[in-house]
Amino acid sequence: MTLPFLRPTDPPAAHLWRPAVLAGSLLGSGFAPVLRGTAGTALVAAPSLALLWVPDPARWAVWAALGLVFSVLSLLAGRAVLRAYPALKDPSWFVLDEAAGFFVTCAVFGAGTGLDICFAFLTFRLYDICKPWPVRMFERLAGSVGILADDLAAAVLAGLSCWGLRALAQLV
């Protein structure tokens, strides 16, 4: 069985239900026809608006904990995916790392409003897509660490950029 949204480098349709593929693609969002990383990030960004109900001091800890949990899951799922598909280095459909990066961005930024979350989402995606220095360096790392590391680097840069722009806006 072939599916129209699958690319030649994607796993066969019969493999889409494998736990590592299902986790790595964030329940299939990584198989979006375009903007796969953005689709995966949006899948976790939209429901994260519910975290705005968490009191302010604890919210940072929740962002950080989610970043840590999704990072560990990304490392584990990435290792399983690379073992199952050794020809792949960083599959475009693997978007669990984007979820980890989004949560790290929110933690670094200290996202506390819906606008903050939207700004974190857009800024993280910009850095993840453009991969400015030093983000691109982290792609060279081997295995699942390489899959995740560039997203975490983009997340830290995005979070610091958001934080700095917010601080600058408060001065004006």
Q: What number of domains?
A: 1
Helix-strand makeup class:
mainly alpha
The value of Rg in angstroms is: 16 Å
Helical amount: 55-70%
Mean pLDDT: 91
Overall, the morphology is globular
User: Approximately how much beta-strand content do the residues carry?
Assistant: under 5%
How many individual β-strands?
0
Largest sheet: none
Unreliable residue stretches:
none
Distance between the termini: 58 Å
Secondary structure tally, helices: 7
Order of helices and strands: HHHHHHH
Topology:
Elements lengths: L18 H6 L11 H10 L10 H29 L11 H14 L4 H17 L4 H4 L4 H29 L1
Q: How would you characterize the overall build of this protein?
A:
It is a single chain. The chain has 172 residues and is an all-alpha fold. The protein has one domain (15-171). 63% of the residues lie in helices and 0% in strands. The protein has seven helices and no strands. It has helices spanning 19-24, 36-45, 56-84, 96-109, 114-130, 135-138, 143-171. The chain is globular. The mean pLDDT is 91.
Short structural summary:
The protein is mainly alpha-helical and 172 residues long.
Keywords:
mainly alpha, 172 residues, 7 helices
